[in-house]
Amino acid sequence: MSRSSFVKLTAASAAVRGTVPTILGADDKAGIKPLIIGKDEHTYEVLDGWARLPTNMSFGNTHSVQETADGRIIVHHSGLDSTCFFDPDGKFIEAWGGSTYVGHAHGMDLREEGGEEFLYLATTGMRKSIKTNLKGEVVFSNDYPKEAKDAAANPCYANAGQYSPTYTAFAPEGDLYVTDGYGAGYIHRYSATGEYKSSFGGTGDAPDQMRCPHGIFCDTRNRERPLLVVADRSHHRLQYFTLDGKLDHLVTNATPQRDNDGSGKFRYPCQFSHRGSELLIPDLAGRVTILDMDDNVVIHLGDNPNVGQRANNDVPKSQTVPGVFCCPHGATWDHNGNIYVAEWLPYGRVTKLRRV
């Protein structure tokens, strides 16, 4: 591809949000200047193909990404040795998992507990929620919650095949919340040590029901009143609940603002990361969104103008464009304000957006 064609493509990718990526900075070793997207305080250099695996390794679908306290970046993917550690420059450090999570790896959340960090894995195909240390040693593993009952006191599940967890959230006092995003649509609450406590939600179209509650996060931006926020993906909205599972409010495409293209702020919201007063949301349909304290859109990053590539797991690697996303599935801010985006693509794609 010629440089002129590349610039045209990257410019088109930003047309939806009205901000054209700018080519800035000194030439790199290949003679191509850095690609810059965003604007104002949300301006980033695109580091496409940031994660560099050894030649004898390959990614499966890249689903989740987290940062450890010492600055390592963890990528969770569906292939062999599914949990990979990198330094901030994308250099591979180590990996674990063997064949255990092949085809099952999905949600990966991290929490510090008593000076040690732990990973919480939501394994869709294994139908388990698993806690491990950073070495991959299992602390506990939960199967589907046989005792779970809905609001009418009916069992939530007849069998394990109806359960397929996707992500985990953590309340300030220690409780865990696991989304059954690919199963029956419930949110299940557990104690910090993994004992089942209660359930809420379920599949449906009522304000407190969900269709693919994909991601969940304990929003502590208001420290006086923490709330659970759920990415109700197929309803194209966020649902906020109290910590005991009562609906607090909805954030939809109708309120309080819409994008210029009329598509609303959400297409298929997947998951959350927060920094200060802002929420970072990977949207499976081709962009990453940042919301302010009032859940207004601050910016969409990497918006894909090609509708056919949005949420499309079959996009060939040769057709991806730096700075333009196809299937953002997981994303996180690091401690310096850089963003890492993992995309649901079979060859794996992890992009770093370096804050400039």
Explain this structure to me?
There is one protein chain. Strand 4 and strand 5 form a beta hairpin. The N terminus is likely disordered. The chain has a single domain, classed as 6 Propeller (Neuraminidase), CATH 2.120.10. The strands form 6 sheets. A 6-stranded antiparallel sheet has the order 1-2-3-26-25-24, covered by helices on one side. The protein is built from 1 helix and 26 strands. The chain is globular and about 65 Å long. With 356 residues, the chain is mainly beta. Helices cover 3% and strands 39% of the residues.
What is the name of the CATH architecture? 6 Propeller
In the predicted model, the low-confidence regions spanning at least 5 consecutive residues are 1-27
**Basic shape:** globular
Read across the widest sheet, the strand sequence of neighbours is 1-2-3-26-25-24
The CATH C-level name is Mainly Beta
Q: Sheet bearing the most strands, described?
A: 6 strands, antiparallel
Q: Please compute the radius of gyration using only Cα atoms.
A: 20 Å
Euclidean distance between termini CA atoms: 27 Å
What is the CATH topology classification name? Neuraminidase
CATH superfamily: TolB, C-terminal domain
Helix content: under 10%
H/E topology pattern = HEEEEEEEEEEEEEEEEEEEEEEEEEE
Number of helical elements: 1
Number of structural units classed as domains: 1
Q: Tell me the structural class.
A: mainly beta
* Strand residues, percent: 35-45%
Tell me the number of strands: 26
